[in-house]
């Protein structure tokens, strides 16, 4: 039987899962590919770490050793950061290898360049594992995109953040406890700051943007915020209003270009993300023909991520299965200028705040509740007002409410909120 030779870069959570899955699913792979898949080599960084590597696989800390084997067909990459991952994959492609990656930081920066190089060298690039863990979102969107136009995508794209929010809410654990648990389970990044400050979800959003629209928004214009400032009392007060916190990344074309956001928001029971708990990710797309589609599944961890990489392995070896996404974006078909629209917000103002006076703003107060540390306020305001509050009042926490029914009170004459620190609580 023909043999397909592969090398795996990185032997941590994901790399180990990939080697294990190739071995445990050898029969299925042989049926699909008509060939045996052999893992020949593994690349690691630390030469002194004790490892349990299956017999017959050589390991090295020098990538050139792998290329010098001369017969590697596919390089599966699961190491950390832009470099040296990008340089290794470039070299692999130039040597005629197909490449599959789970590395979103690298792919958000260099995905287009790698794909172009792969085209020139007549090989293929798989990157399913870089976004939304085990959910086959890249492939699904590529298929969907052939005719549909995606007007908006929003997603829970960081499994660690969703796991932390869920465990804090359901089991009352502290942020630090749950983060440590997420690290133990292999969900979190080597540096978990990327998970809890929104960077990981941001890179995934940029990869999706490239896929959907053939370009990325200007990175400096994408709001990027993580869950590190959400505390238990905020969650409890939100719950009293019927809302749950979710960390959501969203992208949509507008007449002002692509609008991307990565931040914690709150959602009501009727929102599709309300029931997405634990390490799950979810992606919701609004597309021209199919309407609203929701994908949900494990967003991180050894086997879900390995699943995405092994499915990619089959895909790169059977290129006839590959389909490219549309690279067109029709700005004239979408609405722009949404900054003046009034949106629903949940605000947390610290008890006894020392707010600057007078802080004049516009908008409408709907309801409020008091906790020990925070006053929680349901508020209707436009993006501009909220942006002003964010920059001028860093002690106030502001979360958009998405998917809630229109507030009835709005039809009556609500008082303007003249000054946040003069609100009577
Ligand atoms: P990990 O457990 O920390 O493992 C990283 C592996 O990469 C280790 O074996 C490490 O070598 C190796 N490595 C790091 N830098 C290297 C370098 N410069 N040269 C050679 N080897 C190097 O990380 P992971 O969780 O498996 O994640 C790997 C990649 O997959 C990351 O890009 C991550 O963002 C992505 N990813 C992870 C998940 C997940 O659920 N964990 C899901 C999707 C995507 P040593 O063993 O010698 O330290
Ligand atoms: N640290 C990432 C997460 C791994 O928690 O979503 C999957 O990309």
TrEMBL record:
Database matches in InterPro entries: Asp/hSer_DH_NAD-bd, HDH_cat, HDH_CS, NAD(P)-bd_dom_sf
This protein's record includes keyword Transferase: no
Domain Homoserine dehydrogenase catalytic: 136-314
Record-linked Pfam families: Homoserine_dh (PF00742), NAD_binding_3 (PF03447)
Every Aspartate/homoserine dehydrogenase NAD-binding domain range: 10-128
Known pathway: Amino-acid biosynthesis; L-methionine biosynthesis via de novo pathway; L-homoserine from L-aspartate: step 3/3; Amino-acid biosynthesis; L-threonine biosynthesis; L-threonine from L-aspartate: step 3/5
Top-rank EC class of the record's enzyme: oxidoreductase
Keyword NADP: yes
Keyword line: Amino-acid biosynthesis, Methionine biosynthesis, NADP, Oxidoreductase, Threonine biosynthesis
Membrane-crossing residue ranges in chain numbering: none
Swiss-Prot/TrEMBL catalytic activity: L-homoserine + NADP(+) = L-aspartate 4-semialdehyde + NADPH + H(+)
E.C. no: 1.1.1.3
UniProt similarity note: Belongs to the homoserine dehydrogenase family.
NCBIfam families to which the protein is assigned, alphabetical: PRK06349.1 (NF004976)
Protein name: Homoserine dehydrogenase
Organism (species): Bacillus carboniphilus
């Amino acid at each position: 039987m023909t043999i397909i030779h592969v090398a795996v870069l990185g032997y941590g959570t994901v790399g180990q899962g990939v080697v294990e899955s190739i071995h445990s699913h050898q029969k299925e792979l042989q049926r699909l590919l008509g060939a045996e898949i052999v893992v020949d080599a593994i690349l690691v960084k630390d030469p002194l770490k004790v490892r349990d590597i299956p017999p017959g696989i050589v390991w090295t800390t020098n990538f050139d050793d792998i290329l010098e084997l001369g017969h590697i067909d596919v390089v599966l990459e699961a190491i950390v950061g832009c470099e040296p991952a990008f340089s290794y994959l470039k070299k692999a492609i130039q040597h005629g290898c197909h490449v599959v990656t789970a590395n979103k930081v690298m792919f958000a920066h260099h995905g287009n360049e790698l794909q172009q190089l792969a085209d020139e060298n007549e090989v293929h690039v798989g990157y399913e594992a870089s976004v939304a863990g085990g959910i086959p979102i890249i492939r699904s969107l590529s298929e969907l995109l052939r005719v549909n136009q995606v007007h908006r995508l929003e997603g829970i794209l960081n499994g660690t953040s969703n796991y932390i929010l869920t465990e804090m809410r359901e089991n009352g654990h502290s942020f630090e406890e749950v983060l440590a648990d997420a690290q133990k389970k292999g969900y979190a990044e080597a540096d978990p700051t990327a998970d809890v400050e929104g960077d990981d979800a941001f890179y995934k959003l940029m990869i999706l943007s490239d896929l959907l629209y053939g370009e990325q928004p200007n990175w400096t214009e994408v709001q990027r915020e993580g869950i590190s400032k959400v505390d238990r009392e905020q969650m409890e007060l939100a719950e009293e209003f019927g809302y749950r916190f979710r960390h959501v990344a969203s992208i949509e074309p507008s007449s002002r270009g692509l609008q991307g956001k990565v931040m914690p928001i709150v959602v009501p029971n009727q929102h599709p993300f309300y029931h997405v708990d634990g390490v799950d990710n979810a992606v919701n797309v609004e597309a021209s023909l199919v309407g609203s589609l929701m994908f949900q599944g494990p967003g991180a961890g050894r086997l879900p991520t390995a699943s995405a990489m092994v499915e990619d392995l089959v895909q790169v070896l059977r290129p006839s299965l590959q389909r490219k996404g549309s690279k067109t974006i029709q700005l004239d078909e979408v609405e722009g200028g949404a900054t003046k629209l009034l949106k629903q917000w949940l605000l947390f103002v610290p008890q006894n705040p020392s707010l600057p006076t007078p802080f004049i703003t516009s908008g409408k107060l709907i309801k409020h509740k008091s906790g020990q540390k925070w006053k929680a306020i349901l508020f209707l305001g436009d993006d501009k007002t909220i942006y002003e509050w964010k920059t001028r009042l860093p002690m106030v926490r502001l979360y958009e409410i998405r998917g809630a029914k229109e507030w009835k009170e709005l039809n009556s004459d609500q008082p303007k909120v003249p000054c946040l620190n003069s609100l009577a609580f």
